[in-house]
């Protein structure tokens, strides 16, 4: 259980780092493209991808914390993460309706 | 938007990111007034972009292995529940709140916290005996100033919970991240050393901002080119801020924080007039 949680934590940390890098790259490329071809759709798409990737990073951080909690067998931590995850899911559901 | 304006936004983002990472407060508190008052973006768009940059600062800190020993996840996630709930509610009701009332209230709170921080400049909140039990919400870390592992205990959790509720609300309504309330409060009133408070808050503010940012995005209040310029600046500035944070003395960080809070307080008074 502990070994599995440790592996999950490592994978999620790598995903979080990748999410920041993808976001940075997409935002830089989108901004550059917006100057070169202001009326193109590619720039807008890249900028949206960058912003959405960045917004996803805290969600991954919550999953990393969940893995940390599972590894430490810390029920309190896992419970708090579950409540926060429900609140973030509610935010996404309300944003979809907005 | 012209390249000149976007370059200005990126520069402001870098300054905001540096101070935000240094103090664990996100940087939105500098950027939102700048985007609104200097660049001339609507307040809604400035707040939306502010929230995205707060997520940017938080993401940089969260991916840094060096900050990990300072982050108190148990305390952070306990306080994350009221902060996220308040941020969500704030994002939904923000359009009905008179801005002027919020500016006045916020100005008073930030000025008060700045004065409390100045009064406690020499207080470090650490226990030098590493064998002391930190309790369920305390922690331990290597402190460069004393050259050894130190321990701290967290006190007055109800106060921290109420402050987190207020911080989440402020994050969702003003788009500035809740760290500006949380860091001084949990440092001054709850006994958490400034470095641990700033590192924990830096992780939390991203999750708090995430509780309202998608609603701003769905409303069209995140302008992609300006947001991209601000975020790129913030990501660069955050790395510089973390480098400085590892080398600066707590006393100077507290002085900087007090100066920042005083500046924010004055800017909100000016905005309210």
Structure keywords:
heterodimer, A: 98 residues, mainly alpha, 91% helix, elongated, B: 273 residues, two-stranded antiparallel ribbon, 11 helices, globular
Structure commentary:
The complex is a heterodimer of chains A (98) and B (273). Chain A is an all-alpha fold and 98 residues long. Chain A is built from three helices and no strands. In chain A, helix 1 (2-36) packs antiparallel against helix 2 (41-71). The longest helix of chain A has 35 residues, at 2-36. Chain B has 273 residues and is mainly α. Chain B has a two-stranded antiparallel ribbon. The radius of gyration of chain B is 17 Å and the shape is globular. Chain A binds chain B through residues 13, 16-17, 19-20, 23-24, 27-28, 30-31, 34-35, 44, 47-48, 50-51, 54-55, 57-59, 61-62, 64-65, 68-69, 74, 76-77, 80-81, 83-84, 87-88, 90-92, 94-96, 98, and chain B through 3, 6, 52, 55-56, 58-60, 62-63, 73-74, 77-78, 80-81, 84-85, 88, 91-92, 136, 203, 206-207, 209-215, 217-219, 222, 224-225, 227-229, 231-232, 235.
């Amino acid at each position: 259980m502990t070994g599995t949680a440790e592996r999950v934590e490592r994978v999620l940390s790598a995903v979080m780092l990748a999410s920041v890098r993808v976001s940075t790259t997409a935002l830089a490329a989108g901004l550059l493209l917006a100057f070169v071809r202001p009326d193109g759709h590619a720039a807008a798409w890249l900028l949206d991808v960058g912003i959405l990737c960045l917004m996803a990073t805290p969600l991954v951080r919550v999953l990393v914390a969940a893995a940390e909690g599972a590894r430490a067998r810390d029920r309190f931590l896992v419970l708090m993460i579950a409540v926060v995850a429900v609140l973030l899911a509610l935010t996404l559901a309300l944003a979809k309706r907005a | 938007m012209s390249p000149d304006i976007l370059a200005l936004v990126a520069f402001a983002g870098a300054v905001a990111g540096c101070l935000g990472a240094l103090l664990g407060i996100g940087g939105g508190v500098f950027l939102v007034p700048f985007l609104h008052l200097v660049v001339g973006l609507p307040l809604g768009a400035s707040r939306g972009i502010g929230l995205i940059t707060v997520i940017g600062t938080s993401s940089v800190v969260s991916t840094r292995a060096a900050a990990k020993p300072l982050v108190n996840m148990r305390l952070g996630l306990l306080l994350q529940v009221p902060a996220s709930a308040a941020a969500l509610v704030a994002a939904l009701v923000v359009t009905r709140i008179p801005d002027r009332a919020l500016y006045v209230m916020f100005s008073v709170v930030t000025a008060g916290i700045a004065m409390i921080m100045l009064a406690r400049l020499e207080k470090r909140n650490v226990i030098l005996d590493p064998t002391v039990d930190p309790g369920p919400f305390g922690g331990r870390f290597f402190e460069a100033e004393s050259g050894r592992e130190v321990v701290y205990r967290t006190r007055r959790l109800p106060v921290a919970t109420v402050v987190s509720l207020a911080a989440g609300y402020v994050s969702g309504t003003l788009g500035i991240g809740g760290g500006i309330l949380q860091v001084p409060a949990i440092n001054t009133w709850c006994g958490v050393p400034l470095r641990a408070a700033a590192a924990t808050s830096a992780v939390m503010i991203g999750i708090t901002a995430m509780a309202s940012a998608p609603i701003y995005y769905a409303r069209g209040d995140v302008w992609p080119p300006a947001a991209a310029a601000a975020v790129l600046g913030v990501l660069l500035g955050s790395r510089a801020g973390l480098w400085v944070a590892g080398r600066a003395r707590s006393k100077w960080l507290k002085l900087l924080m007090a100066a920042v809070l005083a500046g924010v307080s004055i800017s909100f008074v000016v905005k309210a007039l």
